[in-house]
Design a protein that fits this description.
Elements: E1 6-9, E2 15-18, H1 21-31, H2 36-46, H3 55-70, H4 84-102, H5 106-111
Antiparallel strand pairs: 1-2
């Protein structure tokens, strides 16, 4: 993992200095204006992926896939007993998985 500050190639040429987590998040947000391979190229050139992850997000994604793969509920009880955040998060994760599965760009086509 990169330690702050670090420099990276700028997608528009030259080098960028990323001083802290806030710089990294702002840079990532600026890339959201692009789509597909351009977005992935910009992110790959400039952002250390380990800096965008956190333990809460990792545990939620792991729980989601564990539940999907083992056909078990994430929390005790039925649908109405699940925490509201879980319903939102699981829809978001499933939507992302569906988008990747249906994506025809070169990056995802190799993985599907």
């Amino acid at each position: 993992m990169h330690e702050f500050p670090y420099t990276a190639n700028s997608p528009t040429g030259g080098r960028l200095t990323i001083n802290d987590q806030n710089d990294l998040i702002e840079l990532f947000k600026s890339f959201l204006d692009f789509s597909g391979e351009v977005f992935y190229s910009f992110v790959k050139q400039t952002i250390c992926p380990n800096r965008l992850r956190d333990s809460w997000a990792d545990s939620v994604v792991h729980r989601y896939f564990y539940c999907q793969n083992n056909n078990v509920p994430p929390y005790p009880g039925g649908y109405d007993d699940q925490p509201y955040y879980w319903l939102d998060v699981s829809r978001l994760i499933q939507g992302t998985v569906d988008e990747i599965k249906n994506c025809t760009c070169n990056i995802h086509a190799k993985r599907n």
